[in-house]
Design brief:
It is an enzyme of class 6 (ligase). This protein is an alpha+beta fold. The chain contains 19 helices and 38 strands.
Length: about 800
Amino acid sequence: MKVPLSWLHEHVHPDLDAATLAERLALTGTEVERVTHHGVPSGDNFVVARVLEAEQHPDADRLRVTKLDIGEAEPVQVVCGAPNARAGITVALARPGARLPDGTKLKKAKLRGVESLGMILGESEVDVGVDHAGIMELPGDLIPGTPLGNVLPLETDVLELEITPNRPDCLGVYGVAREVHAATGAPLGPAPWEHDAGSAGPLAGIDVTVETDRCPRFTARVFENVTVGPSPYWLKARLMAAGQRPISNVVDITNYVMLLTGQPLHAFDLDRVAGGKLVVRDGREGDTLETLDGETRRLDADMVVICDADGPTSLAGVMGGARSEVSDTTTTVLLESAVWDGPNIQRTSTRLALRSEASGRFEKGLSPEQTLEAQTVATRLLVELTGATVREGTLDVAGPSGWDGSHATIRLRDARVVGLLGAEIPRTRSAEILAALGFETADATDGIDVTVPHFRRNDVTREADLIEEVARIDGVDNLPATLPLRRGAAGRLTPWQQLRRTAADTLAGAGLHEIIGWSWSPAELADRLRLPADDPRRAALAVENPMSSDHGLLRTTLLGGLLDVAQRNVTRGLADVAIFESGAVFVPSGDDGLPHEPHLLGALLTGALRPPNWVEPQPPQADFFAAKGVLAHLLDTLRVSWRLERGSEPFLHPGRSARVIVTPHGGGDEAVVGWIGELHPSIAAEWDLERTAVFMIDLNVTIAAVPGPAVYADYTSFPEVRQDLAVVLPASVPAGDVVAAVRAAGGPLLADAGVFDVYRGTQIGEGNVSLALRLAFRAPDRTLTDEEVGERRTAIEEALAQLGGSLRA
C-alpha cells in the first residue's frame, strides 16, 4: 500500500517528517517497508505560465519559439516541440535551476541557434501522468507566476506500508490517517463520505438479483450524461504517486475512491448491460469470460460472477469483463460497490493466477457498511469531474441470508489490562486511544464498555484484542520488562539445544555463514536432483494453500535451499560461498497423519576456500576434502566417533562421495547419519555453479551418539615413540579401513595414527597403492620400551597383512 504524504496530509497532518512518522507507525504495529520520493526533488523554479506567442522555429519544422508570461516585467522565451503549443493557453514551466524527477537540472540552452530559458512541461516529465504526446494545458484562470506546487502535487514522500491481513481498513488512505491520528495525536479531518450527493430509495432502470451468500451486500447507482475523458492533473498526480496508472476520469475515480476508502468499485457501461438486469450467482461449468486484461477465462462453480442477459459480464471481486467496460462513448454508468466472501476471492484469484488491487482487498474481508461509504465519495467525484447527473435512488441488495450489521460491545476491565500487560494504563487513556481508533466507549463500573466499529468487526472480537490496541498505541516500549510469574521454574537450554548451538557455532567459527531457508520446496526439485522414483525424498507432503508454485511441497531435504542461496550469490558476483543451514525437514508418516520432522544440518562450499594474497594468488578451491575437513572439525568438536564409507547419492559425483557413519557412545550398532561429496557437474550446472562440495547429517542421530560430559584427563609427561611405515595395498582398500585396522591392532598404547602420503606408480605394481602411515605410541604412566612398541608394531603389520598389504622395504 503506497500512501503519498501529500494525500495523507489532507486528512491528518502531524508535525513529523516522513522518517519519524514511519518509525512511529512501525512502533504502533503498522509496518513501513520503505519511504520513497515521488515527483520532482523540489518545487523550486516550477511556475504557472501563459503562452503569449508561439511562432515557428526558423531552422526546425517541429519546434516552436514561444513567449511566456510568468508574472514578471518581461516575458521569457522557450523553445518547445509539443504539437499543442499555441498562444493563449496556460502551461507549466520549469525554469533554469529546476530539477526533474530523474535529477536532471535544467540550464539555459540554445536549440538550433535560438535561446531557450526553460521547459514547458508535459505530464510525464513531472510524474503527473503518462501522456507523452504534448504539454499540459492548465486551467485558464490561474495567475502566471504562481508556484506550480500550489496547483499540482509535484513532490511528495510516499510511505510504502506492509499491511497485515487482519487490517484491511488500512488499505485506504483515510484508514491510515486514522492510525496516524491515534499514534501521534494530530487532529483527524472529517470522513470524506460525510456528505452524500446521492439519495436512498428505489433505483429505476436496473434490476439486480443476488443468488449467492458469497455476496453479503451489493449496492449500485446510475449516473447519466457522463462525459468520459482525461482526468484532471491533480487526480492523475495522486494516482501516480500511489502506484496507479491513469486511464480515464471514470476509471480513475473508481481507483481513487478505492485507495481513499479501501473499498473497490466497478463501473459498468449501463447501455452495454444486456437486458438491463444483473444476476450475482455462483459460476457454472462452461462459463467463460473475457476480462479487462484481454484474456478469456474459464470459470467454475467455486467462483462468483455477475451476469446480464448474455451471460457472465464480470468476475466478482477480481476483475471486470471487457463486454461491459466503460469506453470513450459511454454516457450512462452503473457504479457497483459490493462486498464478497474473502476466502472465495482468494481461491479464485489464485486458481486463475489473476491478482488485482480489488482482490487483494476483498480477500482480507471488508465490511458491508463500506459499500455506501465508497458510493458517497464516488458520487461526488463523478458529478464534479464528468458532468454527470445522479439518477434518483440507490440499489441496495443483500444475499439470501442477509448480512449482520450489528456492532459488538466488549467490556474492557481495568484489572484485565494490568493482568495482561503487567502495567497499569489509566482508564481515561484507554478510552482516549480507543476513541481515536474509531471505537465508541462508555464508562462501566470496572472499566469501559467498548463498541467495535464495522471496519474492525472481523479483527477485534474479545477483550484481549482491545488490550492489544491500547498497548500498541500507548507504546509497547513503555511497558516494563518483567518475567512471567512462575514457581520453581528456571529457564535453560536442554542438552540437545546446547549441542545444536555448539554445532552451529562450530561451523560459523570455521568461516561458514548460516542461512535460514524456506520450509517449502518446488515440485520440480526432485527431478532437478535426479532422485529415482523410489527415493523417499520424493514423497513430499503437498501444501494446501501455497504462497507460490515454488512453495508447493514441504521440504524433505535442505539441499534445495542451500543450492538456491549459492546460486543467488554466485549469479550476483560473489563466487566464493561457504554456507550452512540447521533445520527440520518433513517426512510423511503413516502413523497419525503428521509428518516426521528430523532435524538436519547441511553445508555447502564452492569457490575459493580463502581470499587470494601475494603469497597465494590462487587459493585452493572447494572440493571433497575441504568439506571433509569441515565435517571432521564439526564431529570432533561434538566428540562423536565417526568414519566415512564409500557411498553415493544420485546428485553427487560417483567417485567423490561417501556415507557418514557414527558409532553410539558406549557401543551398539553403527548408524548412517548422512552423506558428503562433490555435486555431480550436471547438477551443479543446474544452479549455475562450478565445483561444489556439500554434506548433510541428521543432527538428532548424531547428537544421540555424543558421549556424556567431558571429563578432565591429565596429559602425560612421558615421551611418545614415533614411527613411520609404508604399506602396499590393493587400490580397492579404503584408506579409512586401513587406519581403523591399525588403530584396533595398536591397542591403547597407540596414541595416534594417520596417513601422510599416497603413492601410485610402476614400482609397486598396477592396481596397487602405497600408503605412508605415521604412528605415535605413548603410555600415560611410563616411558615405553622397544619391546612394548615392537609387539604393537608386529600386531599392526599382521592386521595390514589381513587387508592384503605388505610393507615396503
